[in-house]
Each structure stands twice: as structure tokens, then as C-alpha cells.
Write a structure and sequence with these properties.
about 500 residues, about 25% strand, 4-stranded mixed beta sheet, Rossmann fold, 14 helices, alpha/beta
Length: about 500
Amino acid sequence: MNLAHIIDPHPADRVAVISRGHPTTYGALRDQVEHVRGGLARLGVQQGDRVALLCSNGRYFVDLYLAALGLGAVTVPLNPASPAPEIEREVLTVGAKVVVVEPSAAHAWSLIDRAALPTVEHVVATEHDTVAGADLMFDELLSAEPMATIEVEPDHLAALIFTSGTAGSPRAAMLSHGNLQSNLEQGRSANEGTREGDVVYGVLPMFHIFGLNVVLGLSLYRGATVVLVQRFDPSTALDTIRERSVTVIPGAPPMWLSFSHFDEAPADSFATVRLALTGAAKMPEEAMRHLKERFGVTLLEGYGLTEASPVVTSSSGLPQRVGSVGKVLDGVQVRLVDEHGDDALQGDSGEVWVKGPNVFQGYLDEPEATAKVLTADGWLRTGDIAVTDDDGYLYLVDRAKDLIIVSGFNVFPAEVEDVLMEHPDVREVGVVGVPHPHTGEAVKAFVVLEQGATAHEDTLVSWCLDHLARYKCPSKILFVDELPRNVSGKLLRRSLA
């Protein structure tokens, strides 16, 4: 098997991807991928080697992702908007052999000391030759002799996805070919999900598991067309939806909130859309009702996480139940477990445990963190608290940990705290998530300064922007005299929130 085979069965003349207005058929995509695969092989990329992609949604990402999979190499999608220290840390963590850099990431890459990344042998620029240290251009990969897909075992590593997930600071989740493909197959139980001939609006970033396997992977698996979008703007989005006759729109809550607040949008803006999906964070119920009343859009929620490849539940093909994330997919097992480790009684809340071939292999080089979330018999402890109703619909009620979800992206407070603590004026810091009308949650920091220090809020926010992706940075910093702690000195985040 090989996940790269998902593009093989479809008619050669059917459009697979539309990027920057340019359509690529399945036949052309298969040809491009084979050539890029040959180009990567010519660079010495072999089974198990890591290929890091600092690429936004576009043809480069699609070609490189499928080409690397077909070689048995491991794709590492990274956020091209991340600052240099974060990129450097992630490339070093995975031991990337090849790094592909788009123009949007060129500046951050130029600030990285290549000597600090001893495993990187080649840097590929996608569109121009001004990327620092670039050895060659993407077109040189594309001009190589084609190479067929290599067969691998289901447990062969396919991708490393950085997640704050269920176990603390960012770490690389190991997803195999079998993990990712099984979740595509499990999605068949969502009868009204993406299907052959659909046109899917692809704005969710491919470095996020939702964008990678639900938007890109599932669309290509089913023979649909993906319209790849690099930046979201509600007005241009509606133009694209109308002009391309988009039928499926998966999106995080901030996108749907933007649509719900777009008063100038015509009432028939979503006339071609048969399936509107959301996930990655809680969608405000009032906004769901407003979308239904204003546009006739029935927004369906699902639930998943990187460690589950990612979908666990879906509302596709089911009557909308506002507040529910749907039912468990066929082929996925779910338990709700109480604080004693027993199955919760019907109607009682419990931690969501997940089991199935879609559950990840663990965190790269993090056996202790892996052991905290994977039981000996293969259950994934998600850290999310839920209840079910008599009909089997799942409702999320809380998170067991302190994870903050900003625009569908995971932010673990400890990571932000560690960065702020590196500033010489900061003595103590506590970080929590607070409600935000557009992003679901925002990051808020409480800071105790060193005696005599005079750092301002803007100073510390700028410090964070230099070291973290923008969505991880505090939108508000409050200066306090002390932080609430229990008798053992543990920070009481609930008191801060």
C-alpha cells in the first residue's frame, strides 16, 4: 500500500486541484508527482527521510506531499508564517533532510543558521532563487525522470504533524500511511460527506491535520476537486464559491463567524453548497442559527484531533443537532471514562478515549509523553470531556487540560510561558485562554515583572512575535503583583481564567 495511490483511480481528465486559478487534472497531477518524486530521489531522499514543507496551500504542497509519500519518505508540513526560532526548532526536532521554502517563508528562513541544522542537506526554493542557502528550484525537481510509487507497510511513517494536542508543549505526532488512509475509509460512514465530483473549498491550511487529511486527502481519495486558497477574505471567498460552484466547505469557526457577520453578502451566497462543515474548535450556537436563517446554511460540526488522523465523529448525513459534534464514525471506537478509569454511566460526562487503526503511533522521540496519552491496549486519551444522548450523539462539555484553541489551532500555555520567561524583565507568568468573538479563544498572559523592571505590554507582545507563530502570541498582557498558586506552588490557571 501507499497513501499516494489515492490519486490513481480517477479519470485523467477530471480536475483534481485548482491553484491560483489554474486547474490541474488527475492525469496531469499523477504525471507531475511522478517527476517530482524522481527529483527528490535524485537528491538522495529515501524511505524514512524527512522532507519539511514550508508551503502554503497550492500546487507545490500537493506535488511534494504526494511525491514524498510515494517514496516512503516522511512529510513534515510546517507553518510558513512561523518565526525563525520556531521553524528552526521544528526542523531540528524532526531531522529534516530536505526543506522546501516558499516566498512567504523566505525571510524567516534567512534568519536561521544552517549550521544549527546539521541534517539539512538540501533547500529547495519554489518560485525564485533568493531563498537563503537554496540549492535548487522546484522546477528542477519537476524536470527529473519520473519514478513510480514504492509500496510500504501500513505502519510505515507518512507524516509528522506538530501539535500541542493532548500532551503539552508542541511535539511531532507520528502518523502512518495506515493511520491516514484508515481515517479516509472510516469517513465512508458519513454518507453525505465529500464524494466524487464535489468541488471543495480548501482554505484550511495543509500544515494542519484538518486541512491535510480532511480537505486535501479526502477530496483526492473521493475524486473531488479542491480549490486551494492561501488567504481567507469573506468577500473574495464568496466570489470563489459562486464562480467555482463550490459544493463542500470545511472551515474552522472563525471563517463561519466572518460569513455570519458579513452583512453585505447576498442571501443566496451559498446556493451551490450542499455540505457545510466545521470543527477544530467549538462553534457558537447562535452563529449557527444565524447562518441558517440568513443563508439557509446548515452547519454540521465534527470532532477530531491530530492524534486520530483526525476525524472521530461527524454530523454529515445526520439531522443537525446544534451543540452536538455528531456520531462516531464506523471503524472508530469511543469510550467515555470517568475519573476512576471506569466507563461513565449513560448521561454522565467522561473523558473521550478513542481506539482504531486511525490512532497515531505516538510522539517522535517522546516515550513519556506518548505513554500519557496511549494506554497499553491502544486507547487514545484525548483530554476532552463529553456526554452522549440516547441517540448516540456526542456533546463536548469541557477540556481536561489547559489547551487553548485559537482559530482552530492548538496553543499550549506552557509554550507561551516559556517564551515570556526568557525575557529578562519577566519573573513569573501564567497564560490562559479567554473567549474571543472571531477566533473562538485568544491567548491572555498574566506577568509578574522583576523588581525595578519597566517592560511594557507592547514590548512583551513583540518579544513573543519574534519567537512564536502569531496565533500563539498573547492578545492581552496584564501585569500583576503575584500569581495564584496552591499550597504546593502549582499555578492555578482556573483562578486566572
